[in-house]
Amino acid sequence: MSYSLTINGKPVQTGKTFDVINPATGEVAAECPLGSAAEVDAAVAAARAAFPGWAATPDDERVTALNKIADLIEANAEDLAALITQEQGKPQSGPGANFEVGGAVGWTRVTAGLSLAPEVLIDNDEERVEIHREPVGVVASITPWNWPLMIAIWHIMPAIRIGCTVVLKPSPFTPLATLKLVELINEAGILPPGVLNVVTGDAEVGDRISSHPDIDKITFTGSIPTGRRIMERAGPTLKKLTLELGGNDAGIILPGTDMSALIEPLFWGTFINAGQTCSCLKRLYVHEDDVNAVAEALAKFVGGIPVGNGVDETTLIGPLSNKMQFEKVSAMVEDAKAKGARVLAGGEATSGPGYFYPLTVLADCTAEMDVVRKEQFGPVVPIISYKTLDEAVEAANSLEVGLGASAWGNDTAAAAEVAKRLQAGTRWVNRHAVLNPMVPMGGVKQSGFGVEFSEEGLREYTTVQVLSIAK
């Protein structure tokens, strides 16, 4: 299968290519065209030219376009899921590649149903004052490698729904399914040329997007350092930004909790996508009287989960997505072991082929271990014991990030009171990493700003313009 950029509705090849690696085998999955600043400029020019017409398109026509895109994703679901497995490693079974494609369909349909009607602030004998939400303009979407198709949908569908045009940059680790989707949309003629463009690339492309004077907004999902770099480069042109910068989510199990019915949701909230999810639980705080029982129960459950190549239908967890991440997770576990962590499951890097790391449960962890104080983004859970709930809450809130957090307990009201004390954009009770297109998601502290999903997320792609009428 060949791949191309899409600019102004047409396929574009470039003079250079790069290899996309299958993380389950370490082999080249595909050659992908490498974009440059010149392609960014062409894509932005196309998006800028298309913006007035798309912004003026009747609202019901934009709704129809999104529903047609959802139909298109459904019709090509098998091929798109196969590409996700090939480039990212997600299995075909369980909450893997097909789950991601299904989520892309669901998010597209829900976004199609959202709207932002004018809001009347004052209406009396003297005046009528309204707030109108107008599309912000040309939007750049920069997506990560962990949920490549789903997060692209999270970025581009609200932009298109509200009347913006888009230039999309996928991660160079996982560009294939995204390139294919944009190609299918443009081939089908669902959107006018220039409304949705995609350019691959490295730091040169990212930097050009961040500083481009004709881009009005950037939506980025990724690391804190990259988010800061985007802010710095976007500053001179005062771009609007939505930054989802990951986290190091904490979970607290209340003292005396019977976990028999909660181990499975705890597992998936921690290990879905091999832990490569920004909102996964990555630090687990357990009372000192319960810590051994909880750790052993979780390790036993982990031992029954098949890990392997995603094309095997028995696989539920795939590999780490790339060599960089494999080496990072390996190093953090070794640091924990050297500082006294006790391995109850996994804990030893595989020798390949592929970037498989075993599902790992670490007990006796402490705050100075890298696996606790940094986001490890892998199939590892460090368990930290606590004496009092106040101590656990303080530890959970001690880091600079705050994307998600959770509290677990048989008394849900008591667990909810603990959850409300946690500093995070989303606080779950007896669940973690559960997302819904009707529920806004965003972070606090260094986990970024702005939200996605629901009408709150739709507003991120607009400007507020007041209409004030004297009567």
UniProtKB/TrEMBL annotation:
As one GO molecular function, the record gives:
phenylacetaldehyde dehydrogenase (NAD+) activity
Coiled coil where? none
* Annotated catalytic residues: 244
- So what EC number does this one have? 1.2.1.39
Keywords for the protein's UniProt record, in alphabetical order:
Oxidoreductase
> Residue ranges of the Aldehyde dehydrogenase domain?
15-465
Please give the Pfam families that the UniProt record associates with this protein: Aldedh (PF00171)
Q: Which domain of life is it from?
A: Bacteria
What family is this?
Belongs to the aldehyde dehydrogenase family.
| Protein name in the entry | Phenylacetaldehyde dehydrogenase
